[in-house]
Fold this sequence. Notes:
Blueprint: H1 28-40, H2 47-59, E1 65-68, H3 71-81, E2 89-92, H4 99-106, E3 110-113, H5 128-131, E4 136-140, H6 151-161, E5 164-168, E6 176-177, E7 180-181, E8 188-192, E9 205-208, H7 212-222, E10 226-229, E11 233-236, H8 247-256, H9 260-278, H10 281-284, E12 303-306, H11 316-325, H12 341-344, H13 354-362, E13 363-366, H14 374-390
Parallel strand pairs: 2-3, 2-4, 4-5, 5-8
Antiparallel strand pairs: 1-9, 6-7, 8-9, 10-11, 12-13
Helix pairs in contact: 1-8, 2-8, 3-4, 3-7, 9-14
This protein binds pyridoxal-5'-phosphate (PLP).
Residues 70-72, 96-97, 99-100, 142, 168, 170-171, 192, 194, 205 line the site of pyridoxal-5'-phosphate.
Amino acid sequence: MAASVSYSQDIVKAALPFLPMTRPTLDEETIAGVVEVLRSGWITSGPCVKEFETKLSAYFGGRPVRTFNSGTCTMEIALRLLGIGQGDEVITTPLTWVATSNVILEVGARPVFVDIDANTRNIDLNKIEAAITAKTRAIIPVDLAGLPVDRARLYEIANRRKIRVIEDAAQSFGSTFNGKRIGSFGDFVSFSFHPNKNITSIEGGCLVLNSEAEAKLAEQYRLQGVIRSGNDGMDVELVGGKFNLTDVAARVGLGQLPRIDEFNQKRILLVKYYLELLSQPEIKAYGLGLPLANFTDSNWHMFQVLLPGDRMTIKRSEVMAKLTQAGIGSGVHYPVIHLFSLYRNLGWKEGDFPIAENVGRNLLTLPLFPSMTHADVERVVKELIAIVSAHIRS
Ligand SMILES: Cc1ncc(COP(=O)(O)O)c(C=O)c1O
C-alpha cells in the first residue's frame, strides 16, 4: 500500500456492511456436526465433551484437561482445588476482564492488584514480589490480548516464594512461550471459549491440571460434588456447582480446534498490516500507542491501540461513536477493575495503579478476526485516522 492515507480503493461507506470488532469463523462442517448432535438424542455433556477433552489434552502435550461452561468457573474451580478462601490473598492485574478478580472474591479471598507494565500491558513482574505477604496463596497472571506473561520470570518467583499459579490464559489459546504452547506446561492453566476468543464453543472453557486426581476433584466441583460408582452408587463429599459443558457446545469446539493455527496465522497477517499502516510517519505523528510487535509468542487475540488521550479534543466514547457511524465496531478491554463501585467499596481508589489507569482510559480495541480482509484493515485505519486527525491539538 502507498504511504500516507491514500488507499488502494476508495471506500464507499454506505455500500459497506458493518465491520464488527470480532466475529467467530464457523464452517459448514461444524454446523452440520451440531445438527447431528441435536438430532442424536444426547445434547448435554456426553461423547462430544469426552472427545473435546481428549483432543485438548493431546493439544496440551497430554496434560489432564477438563471442560466447563465458562472460562470464569474454570478459575473459580482452580481456586477451590487449592483450598483458597477466607483470609487468603491472590495477586492479579487490574487490567483484565472483571471475571479474573471476581472469582477471587467469589471464593472469599482478597484480590491484591499489581500495576501493569506499560509496554506489554500485562502485570508488571518486577512489582509482584513487593505485593507478596504471608497471606499470598496464588498469582493469577493474564495474557492480555494473547501476549503471554513472561513464564520464566513468573515461575521463578512463584516457585521460590512457594505460591501457586492459575494462569488466566482466557485470551491466549495457541500462544507460546519459548517455543512451548501456553497450557502445555506450568501450574493450572485456564482458557475461555467465549465467541470472541480465538476458538469458541459458544460459551465454555477448559482447565489444564497437574494430575488425574485434581481432574477428578474438578469434576466434582463441576457437577454438584457428585461421585458415581457402579450402576447406582452416588455420594457427595463437597459443594459443587453446575458448570458442565454441553455436547452441542463441545461439538462447536471440536470443529474449531483443528483450525487454531490457521486462524492465528490469519490474525498475524492482519496485525502486520495494521502495524505497517499505523507506523507511517505522518500517522505516527498523532501519537497513537501501538501494541508490542510480538510475532513469535502472541496469538493476537486482540489488536489494541492507545489513543493519545490528553491531546484529543473528544473522548474515547465519541471516537467509538464516530467509528460506529462509519460502520466499524470497536471495544474497550478493559476499564480498570479497582475503580468499579464494588472494588472502590472494598477500599481501592483512583491513583492506586496509575499505569493501568492510563492504559484503561485510552485503550481501544479495533476489529480483528480471521475472516477479515486487508481492505477491512485499510478501512479501519482510514476512518480512525480521519477521526483522530480532526480532533487533535497540534
Ligand atoms: C482475561 C479473561 N479472563 C476471564 C474470562 C472469562 O471467560 P468466560 O467469559 O468464558 O467466562 C475472559 C473472557 O472474556 C477473559 O478475557
